[in-house]
Write a structure and sequence with these properties.
The structure is a single chain. The chain is an alpha+beta fold and 96 residues long. A 4-stranded antiparallel β-sheet has the order 2-3-1-4. The N and C termini lie close together (8 Å). The model has no long low-confidence stretch (mean pLDDT 96).
């Protein structure tokens, strides 16, 4: 079964609220087998809207990534991100 990447592009508009989200989301992601490959850091936007915070997490499977997003713990974390950031988030199956 191929692993999956959770890729987020974020522009934070309320750092305090988003910090609460990030703290809670980290635990939810880890609980579903997710590990961070990139979290902030240097980036270059070549196309599309500029989102200065870019996050990539690897999950054991598409299902694990999906289950994480819809879990009670992640949804609770997400309440802090709403209104605190402009975000795009995708789950992408890795090539075998």
């Amino acid at each position: 079964m191929p692993s999956a990447l959770w890729i987020a592009h974020v522009k934070v508009t309320d750092p305090e609220a988003y910090g609460r989200y990030a703290s809670l989301a980290t635990d939810a992601i880890a609980a579903h087998g997710g590990v961070f490959l990139a979290r902030g850091g240097a980036y270059e936007t070549l196309e599309g809207p500029d989102r200065p915070r870019n996050v990539v997490a690897r999950f054991p499977s598409m299902q694990a990534a999906h289950d994480c997003y819809y879990s009670d713990s992640y949804q609770a974390a997400l309440t802090h991100a709403k209104g605190a950031a402009e975000r795009e988030l995708s789950i992408i199956e890795e090539a075998e």
